[in-house]
Amino acid sequence: MKFWKTGKAMPFLGTDDIDATVSAVEANGGQVLAPKRQKGPVAVAVIQDPWDNQWFLWQFTG
Questions:
Q1: Strand order in the sheet with 31-39
Q2: I want to staple 45 with a disulfide (CB 3.0 to 4.6 A). Which of 2, 12, 28, 36 is the partner?
Q3: pTM of the prediction?
């Protein structure tokens, strides 16, 4: 997916529960641009908030 290699700076937000955070984003008008995937001991996803800002979410799982 293009969001994993954006070619631009994108802020990272850490979370203790990536699934709950993604659900909260969607419930509050945001959207998931790249679903959660596991990369070693870290789960990552890309979200967009209601103001069109894009964010990488990450959770240490291991």
A1: 12-14, 54-60, 42-48, 31-39
A2: 36
A3: 0.81
